[in-house]
Amino acid sequence: MKxxxxxxxxxxxxxxxxxxxxxxxxxxxxxxxxSCHADLKAYLNLRDNSDLYAQIRGTxxxxxxxxxxxxxxxxxxxxxxxx
Length: 83
Hints:
CATH topology: Glutaredoxin
Number of helices: 3
Radius of gyration: 12 Å
Order of helices and strands: EHEHEEH
Strand content: 15-25%
CATH architecture: 3-Layer(aba) Sandwich
Strand order of the largest sheet: 2-1-3-4
């Protein structure tokens, strides 16, 4: 399984997700939004325009980690990626 993880190396939820995915043998492409300006810009575009973030926009929640599955679908649910 290949998955892109959008998150931060400072976020405990992101670190947990990365550990779980690695344990499951996933091929991970990690986009760290706090260490790469281009990754942050791409994430903000996703957050501002995706229906996935409809309930998060306007709150103090960041909405990370976010997962982009091999088929291009996005989810905020780690369990959905692991199944």
